[in-house]
User: What shape does this take?
Amino acid sequence: MKEYRTITQIAGPLVFVEKTEPVGYGELVNIVLFDGSIKRGQVLDTSDDLVVVQVFETTAGIGRDSGIRFTGETIKMPVGRDMLGRILSGGGKPIDGGPEIVPEKRLDITGAAINPYARGSPNDFIQTGISTIDGTNTLVRGQKLPIFSGAGLPHNQIALQIARQSKVPGSKEAFAVVFAAMGITKEEANYFMQDFERTGALERAVVFLNLADDPAVERIITPRLALTTAEYLAFDLGMHVLVILTDMTNYCEALRQIGAAREEVPGRRGYPGYMYTDLAGIYERAGIVKGKQGSITQFPILTMPGDDITHPIPDLTGYITEGQIVVSRELHRKGIYPPINVLPSLSRLMNLGIGKGHTREDHKKVSDQMYAAYAEGNDLRGLVAIVGKDALSERDRMFLEFADLFENRFVRQGYSEDRTIEETLDIGWNLLSTLPVEQLVRIDRDLINKYHPKFRQAGKAEG
Amino acid sequence: MEVKTEKTKSDTAGVLKRIAGPVVTAVGINAHMYDVVKVGKEELMGEVIKIQGENIIIQVYEDTSGIRPGEPVTNTGLSLAVELGPGLLTSIYDGIQRPLSVLVDKMGDFIQRGVSAPGLDHAKKWEFKPLVREGAKVSPGSIIGEVQETNIVHRIMIPPNMKGGTVQSIKAGSFTVDEVICTLDNGTQVSMMQKWPVRVPRPVNEKMNPTVPLITGQRILDGLFPIAKGGTAAIPGPFGSGKTVTQQQLAKWSDAEIVVYIGCGERGNEMTEVLTEFPELEDPKTGKPLMERTVLIANTSNMPVAAREASVYTGITIAEYFRDMGYDVSLMADSTSRWAEAMREISSRLEEMPGEEGYPAYLAARLSEFYERAGRVKTLGGSMGSVSVIGAVSPPGGDFSEPVTQNTLRIVKVFWALDAKLSQRRHFPAINWLNSYSLYLDSLHDWYDKEVSPEWNTIRSWAMEILQKEAELQEIVQLVGSDALPEAEQITIEVARMIREIFLQQNAYDAVDTFCDMKKQYDMMKAIRQYSDLAYAAQSAGVTPQQIVTIKSKNDLPQIKFIKDYTPALQKILSEMEAEFNALRSSA
Ligand SMILES: Nc1ncnc2c1ncn2[C@@H]1O[C@H](COP(=O)(O)OP(=O)(O)OP(=O)(O)O)[C@@H](O)[C@H]1O
Ligand SMILES: Nc1ncnc2c1ncn2[C@@H]1O[C@H](COP(=O)(O)OP(=O)(O)O)[C@@H](O)[C@H]1O
Ligand SMILES: [Mg+2]
Ligand SMILES: [Mg+2]
Assistant: This one.
């Protein structure tokens, strides 16, 4: 392989090389330092006279005397069955002291888009045991459902509880977890690793760690390595794979850094204009393929800068993912775990995975009714602060009461409390039965007669 | 722009000079703007978008990884065009009209590059039935025959860019789309397929004013903010507010004859949902499968961005083609913001001077050119057809002041403003009734008057007034609480709540309520009106608001939505309501 020593400029993570032979766009580049060590990069721009290379590690040590080797192929990673149970760096190198991965295949890390015509419809209900998810924002296999959180909120606990408790009731198929850390602290990473070890999940997991003190640019490839692995496990080996990506905010910061180094015209708040497309290239790598056994379910975690859901990172994410679980500082302050605020939360695929044959026929309407009642009660809290409780009508007072009950009985649950969907829905009905029946306008009469505690008991007594 | 669907000059060969993502530079070809070129050894499809001296700048519709400078580039001399003819219906295409089902056969479950696939099946034979005889005079746009494509009749026309003449021979029988079915005296040979460049609007005889609503079965749309057949509407909203569900509802239930649905830079699973759901749905009026009138374009967010840019043009050209047959077509584009972003991405790679928020300066022009292709028209063939365009807009942070929303609102006539506050409380469709508008109300007035009821327009205004009044009263309530309101206004609040909860809220996932015809819409609104009249009368007769809002019969009114044959139930409620009010008044 030819080695060029024609670096003309180094700026941020970018290296500019003048060269003689044609180089492919997106090609993998090895940069050889004076001590023989090698750094990796990728071609961002290629022409007859100049090639721009984005380096995935720090550019420390790279100089005009460094050698450049173009590998002639795009970035590929070795994948194999023996990746399960292994811990790799954010760049894909084993860091657990174990042997190199024995490749069964080498796959392009960018991944190809699933042809929409080949996608299977995701409709297997995943029970997480958490009421605010199962009851009101139901997750299905093959969905991408991010957790929108804030600094200092317990998103990691929630993610772990989900990873631990998730099951498709009645199914015993092979599953695996792919965990990709981007720029999180060692302590946070340990928190995950210890839980994986304690519960035995590690054996069925592949872990990629890019920590806070690892090179920021490496974060650009970490989720792609993780998803390439997940695709192999899911679509070649037929496993149901849960992918946890944390923290996507750090990923986006790295993206911004590269954009700035290239002196691109920035989009909103300095993030590149192509961030939507870039993120879609990650999040869309979830789903089911018709005729294949496995699936990829994604749980990206991100911290919203300033708790602002309109910030470009959560905003563009929400536009791509199939809903979002929003963690609320206010509920956290009230001491409620898991502090999930259902109002801005959403699962877009919920309707495919609930109802008769999936969960229970009353599921959708119970959920809608609880939303409506909680939203109304929650609004009234603002009013009470101004005019006092006494100025409320009797109806309003009942809704106000409902909002408190909802937070304390439905939202609040233990870190290892694993509720069945029936338990969740029954809690829902118990709460709704505190409201007059005629206020339950979202639910048809038939379902009320069948499930409402008052009528159910009446029915039983007669029968 | 020139219409080039046949080769106009000999191929010239050049080489690639630079590759930077979806935009590449070539030298050595004699290209014109918007010519389609084949890029690299794998012959990836691209389009010329800028010419700068020697340098020909090309956007490539497929992934360019691994492509090197020095690889060949050839010019086809053609414009980016679609194939139009039997076989379009029930198809699902990518942004440049490659059938996704064919791509699965050719390259498996994941989209690879370098595979071309024609928009129509050229091997399939269709039963052609002539509608003109030898000796007939025909001109561009004339319908010369038909093919029973699905349950829809596909009319075969003389292409708009062909010369007319006298039919010399025309034959019935079974033909592929390439075979000649008709010859004119001037030698012109006509087949069932025509090609049309996507960036050029198909010509019409005359644009007409829209006077008929596109009935969607969605109460807030048909009832309060209707769009006309041939009209334009925008539906902006933050993520999760209901753009896609509303668009899909329109694709399912609107009374268009043909539906073109463009998934432009959105989710793969949403297209899968359409693909699995539509074949099982039936047209509420005709009982025929809805898929049979539908064409889908799916260029999802992770598919090449240049093809996303092309997808809206591909879609609208197909829509115009069916319009030219005399059909009422409705086109949904979800989301036009992703299209605008594709323009921005390409523009920034061209290092063009950015306009507002990095969008190219020609954003507004492109948007208005696109929406201008909507309309109710007299076709070249002399029949009436229409294209209605409904574009979703995805404003960053849900902020409507951004360029795509603003430039769209300057053009479209209907604005359905989605509101995160409503969607968060699961009030769907989350269309804000105070901010939304339809500029078609006047031109549709007569239709509602004649087809629904002479009272319809009055009752609509009444409902809007109550909602407006409620908004004002809510401001007072926020200060003093609801009990402090005067009695009559407490009733207004209650009636407004009924309009919101009973009429406006409509669950897309309820088997019955997903579609509501005009008669039921009218009956529901009239029932609320009846309650309102009785309530105010009772209040002036001395009945307390507490008694009025708690009458029993009204509790069953929301249930009407979930009942298919609702008339008996509604009659019962209304007569009980009257009895209850009578009793209250006599005891007051
Ligand atoms: N368009 C609307 N759709 C639904 N509900 C509405 C609408 N307008 C007013 N309301 C009702 O009135 C209440 C107050 O309206 P809304 O919250 O929109 O006011 P606002 O001025 O935007 O409030 P804020 O200042 O908190 O943003 C809502 O919570 C809702 O119950
Ligand atoms: N008319 C409706 N009826 C019931 N649910 C709806 C309706 N419109 C939207 N929704 C709910 O809102 C969610 C988000 O809607 P969607 O159309 O995907 O939003 P957007 O396209 O604006 O991001 C849906 O998954 C669904 O749960
Ligand atoms: Mg959408
Ligand atoms: Mg017509």
